[in-house]
Amino acid sequence: MKHYLSILIIAVLTFIGCTPEDQPGATQTGFDVNLEIPAEITIETDTKTIGFNIIDGKAPNPADMIILEGPAGKKFCKIKSIAGGIVNVELYSGFKEGTHKVSVQRNLDVKVLGTTNIKFKVIDDGVHAESGSSVYGKVSCAGKGLEGVVVSDGYEVAVTNKDGVYQLASKKKHGYVFVSVPGGYEVPVNIVFPQLHKYLSKSASVAERVDFELKAVPGQNNFKMLMFGDMHMARRFNDIDQFAYFLDDVKNLVLSEGGNIYGQTLGDMTWDRYWVPNNYGFPEYINEMKPLSGLTIFQTPGNHDHDMWESGDFDTMAKFKTNIGPSYYSYNIGKVHFVVIDDIECTNPGAGEKSSYNNNIVQEQLDWLRKDLSHVSKDTPIIVSMHIQLFSDPGTGQTPNYSINASSASAFEDILDDYNTVHIFTAHTHRIYNVDNTLTKNSIYEHNAGAVCACWWVTGIYNIKANIASDGVPGGYTILKVNDKNISWQFKGTQYPVSKQFNTYDRNKINLDRAVLLPSLKEEEAKEWDARTQTWAGASTSNEVYINVWNYDYNWKVEVTENGTPLTVSKVWDYDPLHMLAYTYERYIRSEDAGHITGKTFHLFKVTASAPDTTLEIKVTDRFGNVYTESMKRPKEFKTTNYTWDKVQ
After folding, report:
1. Tell me: the pLDDT tens digits for 277-321?
2. Rounded-to-integer distance, Cα 549 and Cα 631, Å
3. Are the CB atoms for 278 and 236 separated by under 8 Å?
4. pLDDT at position 440, please?
5. How many angstroms separate the CA atoms of 278 and 255, rounded?
6. Beta strands across the sheet bearing 297-298
7. Is 145 helix (H, G, I), strand (E, B) or coil?
8. Dihedrals φ, ψ of 489, to 5°?
9. Torsion of CA 42, 44, 50, 51, to 10 degrees
10. CB contact set of 250 (below 8 Å; sequence gap of 6+)
11. Given a cut of 90, is residue 217 above it in pLDDT?
12. How far apart are CA 413 and CA 435, in angstroms?
């Protein structure tokens, strides 16, 4: 036994003493890493890193070593970052060009990935750093420089000259630069993630060249943008299975609609609370989006996309910026300028402490936005996406209150003041409401645009085809349609046809009496239930019918006739009974956490029929003249299974 231990100790000490260049490469193994190894890679002479695309989500671990075996022998290279589907590898000191066998080593196991010829290119195209410039380069299409393109590091903004060359005096604080993609062009896409940014590798005192190659896109003045609110992917509440229905819905829409279609998330794609315990973070989210490969989806950070294990505001975004990209930036599609804002200011003290944040647009973003918009003409439509809503729900038509810090909100509005058309798309509430531009001081129209996950996927546990949010709206997304500079929009429930825009409830068939449904509720839960069911508790012969118009605003019209006679339609502020049944009731009877229970909605309407068995003709017209109808045969049974998406196909 002593002899065996001696051999083991000697072996361990020998391994520890190895330098990276003489570590023993062990046998070929089957650990699951797969990278795309091109036949040839051309790099600049001063390049310090090279990138390999990840195939099928099979990324190496950050601690793995990449072996390059070539003209300089076997060299071990560290992984610098794994971000946006790309593994960035530090080249060994004194790198020599030539054919290299590429392998990955984990502990003592090695897997050969392929062979590539890495060669230097000598750039002598007249593009050089000017005095004071720390980042410079060329923006081109098919090799030709593009004039007037904006490039930024999130602080400073530069514009390309007639040759497509920009010069940026960057302090490199964020560690990347991004191109504000001009209208009529696109950047390369990895899975669904646009590669509009490039990471920097040198100190702020050293100038480095970063080029962007764009692709021309014909007919881009007409396009659709799909706005995706809270996804909250966390490997929880069978969200993976439910998300598959969403992916299928989007894929079918893209295939059926055709033309130029893009996507924009509105934050909370992940759920920081479950990054560690459920092993589900940005890499898993990136992999989850593969069924939509080819569709360009721009990303907006939400509060749950911040790393609350870090302290302060800047460091909490490190994982997002490494895996996804810039936390705020701009781009153009056709004649529209898009801006992405991070309106979460983290104040949390760090690991082990209670996390906290302010709803706020910090000053550095306001300063950047002024610089960015200084290059955008005043007649250009501006569309801003950010996670936390700018305004509260104005429901009854009053002037809305700010939902974020009033000082930054006012400054934000002032920056946008001179633009003719401004739309803001937000999420966070998991609900839908619209703030009409007639209610805001600078004619901003805000769309609090719903949530893909509805109520954190919870209702889908009980009925996977009836996932709805606390205002009675199904999980789904908003379709933004742009024709030149004309903008229209529609909400689309996941797996629902776009012609479905409301639910109807027959009060005569509803009885949410606690004594009948939930006789054993605890005192606090009983109070919550009773407060939300005052309209819905007890049997009724009132002949009242309620209509929940999901994406209603004050330019919509709701009309109801009974046997050809118009009925008076009144707007009410109340709790959606379907959500009470599909969510709050289900959670109580299963003794689960009853958080996020039903909330009041302003998009609920009521009519009174003359009898319990007449058919009502319901006609809802949106602000663009689209008409949605239902011939409501009564009595109409009230149960969750009658409101699933497969019932309206």
Report:
1. 999 999 999 999 999 999 999 999 999 999 988 998 999 999 999
2. 15
3. yes
4. 82
5. 33
6. 297-298, 260-265, 222-228, 476-483, 486-493
7. strand
8. -155, 155
9. -60
10. 226, 263, 292, 295, 477
11. yes
12. 14
415 has a pLDDT exceeding 90: yes
Measured CA to CA, the distance from residue 525 to residue 511 in angstroms comes to 18
Other residues' Cβ atoms within 10 Å of the Cβ of residue 26: 12
First-residue to last-residue Cα distance in the chain:
73
Q: Cα dihedral sign for 71, 76, 79, 80?
A: negative
Token pair, residue 558, equals: 């709701």
The predicted pLDDT at position 510 comes to 98
pLDDT tens-digit profile of 149-186?
A: 999 999 999 999 999 999 999 999 999 999 999 999 99
For residue 565, which of 602, 610, 509 has the smallest C-alpha distance? 610
DSSP 21-38: GGPPP--B------B---
CA distance 186 to 88: 23
Distance CA 253, CA 241 (A): 19
List b or e across 382-402, with b for residues whose CB sees 16 or more CB atoms inside 10 angstroms: bbbbbbbbbbbbbeeeeebeb
Instruction: Render pLDDT for 223-275 as a digit per residue (tens, 0 to 9).
Output: 999 999 999 999 998 999 999 999 999 999 999 999 999 999 999 999 999 99
Token couple for 109: 């196991």
Q: Measured between alpha carbons, how far is 209 from 234 in angstroms, rounded to an integer? A: 38
Element (H, E) at 565: strand 565-566
Nearest-5° angle of CA 220, CA 222, CA 225?
90
Phi/psi zone of residue 175: left (φ > 0), alpha (ψ -120 to 50 degrees), beta?
Answer: left
Q: How confident is the model at residue 140 (pLDDT cuts 50, 70, 90)?
A: very high
458-487 tens-digit pLDDT: 999 888 999 999 999 999 999 999 999 999
The tally of CA atoms less than 13 A away on the side-chain side of residue 24 is 9
d(CA 177, CA 326): 8
**CA-to-CA distance for 327 and 377, rounded, in angstroms?**
24
353 SS3 class: coil
- Name every residue whose Cβ is closer than 8 Å to that of residue 575 and which is 6 or more positions away in sequence: 532, 533, 535, 536, 598, 599, 600, 601
Predicted pLDDT at 19: 34
The H or E element containing residue 628 is strand 627-632
Q: Among candidates 574, 572, 579, 580, which has minimal Cα distance to 529?
A: 580
Pairing of strands 73-83, 176-180: unpaired
Contacts of 31 (CB under 8 A, 6+ apart): 106, 109, 111
- Tell me if the bond preceding 635 is cis, omega within 30° of 0: yes
Least Cα distance to 422 among 477, 378, 388, 359 occurs for: 378
* Separation of CA 21 from chain center: 42
237 sits in the region (left: phi over 0; alpha: psi -120 to 50; else beta) called: left
* Helical packing angle, 406-415 and 363-373, nearest 10°: 10
